[in-house]
Sequence to fold (598 residues):
Amino acid sequence: MEASARNKNKWILAYALVIGFLVFQIVFYYFFMLHYK
Amino acid sequence: MRTADWVVLLLTLSGIVIYGVWKSRKTNDLDGYFLANRRLPWYHILLSVMATQASAITFLSAPGLGYSDGIRFVQFYFGLPLAMVVICMAFVPAFHNLKVFTAYEYLEGRFDLKTRSFTALLFLLQRGVSNGISIYAPSLVLSAVLNIDITYTTIFIGCLVMLYTVYGGTKAVSHTQLLQMLIIFSGLIIVAIVIVTKLPEGIGLNSALHLAGKAGKLNAIDFSFDLNDKYNIWSGIIGGFFLQLSYFGTDQSQVGRYLTARSVTQSRLGLLMNGLVKIPMQFFILSLGALVFVFYLFNQPPVFFNPVEINKLNQGAYQKEYSNLESEFTVAQEERRLASFDLAKAIQDQDQQTVQKAESRLSAAEDASGEIRQEVIELIMTNNPSADTNDNNYIFLDFVTHHLPAGIAGLLIAIIFLASMGSMASGLNSLASTTVVDLYKRHVHQDTDRKEYISASRWSTFFWGLFCIASALFASRLGNLIEAVNILGSLFYGTILGVFATAFFLKSIRGSAVFYAAIVAELFVILAWWNELTAFLWLNLIGCALVMILATLIHSIAGRR
Fold:
């Protein structure tokens, strides 16, 4: 695979991780709220 | 404030200033003054963008919100990670590849000079005033708590910042922000540990969180959709996305931070890390407020947290009435304390029936305290009709100055100062860079030597420093300050973002179309806010969408002609 394509894929993975972490946090805070309600 | 607190405070502040001046001692061209020679690594970018966004308002208002309203304000930041991704994809490469000094410089090449100048002016207006609020907020609170006239605290903060910002520019700003954020993080962790250790025996962190939850302070997520509701997940993700996209993508105070990176990769890494770390940080700060609430379930809180208004009551005609209400509040507080112990024990014993009874008892005690507090607020209004009855911004500082050990209180006060200074420094630097690069260099002196530009940059920084101090001194109370800053941002960010979004994503649109679209959109946003058509977060989306739609319409009409 070309270096630039590999590089692009790395960034896409990084973006996906950031968005994935956001989703994880929303779920976490929701259950955190329910647990202590 | 004890002697140890003053020592820690003054040592921390002087250390920061000296460090900033020392680190920027070889700055002698515009690249160095405004962009630190484009050499900084990702972690520098990360701490710099965090320090720029997290002003003193974050550390005063956010815990206060956590105390009074709960932690739902965390939803406000849910759009931020999405904004970071878009900025990394579209904005960072565009700005880096063109080697611009300011975000608005990019617009001349893409559109025309008038669009660049108009957008730069919108930024100067918005940032100039909000920088004033950013100094005013902590000055007001610090003056009340330290018992020093607000004029002196405002001038003191302003002058400290001007000292290293005028001399060293972005290098001084970035290096001091790195140090400031490390101190701030350490201080907050220490406060969290101290709060938990000061809870009564038998009440640990888990019990404290249960109590906070039962009192409705851990209501992090709200799925209801209401355009007039300030904080729910939808306004946070959608409205917040546009606000953060505009703030980080088009506000020079942030763009200037990540343009200092040594490469596109370093800029992106810094911004993505910000997207990972920002929400947990805000959650932590808001939770501190919720923990302070729990602390005050077991310890006597002031009936009203602003000491200035309480002093006025004690020295005024209503001193006796206030004294009576204070006695009633003490009795109500005792009931709160006992109800809290019962509830904590019932939760630990996992006895649901007793939990419900104890919860009702605590709720009734809260209502009783709340009624007395309301009566005190009405008394304050009677005593002083122009009094600010929102004491949110004083809650955390009251806790810090009365309940933290010697030295640590001074560290926390220093943190409030540092946060204010970090934001103000970025703001000043960005105001100066936009003034010099987009206005002075472009319209007045296009070809002159390096020394004159550096001199103009320093004078510009100095002028904006004075402007910000002046606007802080004359700023009247604007209600909740963290809201005031974001409302001000929402009035302008949507339009500015619309111009940049058109630049990046609507390639066929030319300068005049977007210029006239921006003017109309800005007028509409201001009218919409004035007439309270919707909650302020949505103004960002409205402004941005209007610019893009109108620009497309104007372009197609002009094309047909």
In short: The CA atoms of residues 322 and 376 of chain B lie 7 Å apart. Chain B has a mean pLDDT of 87.
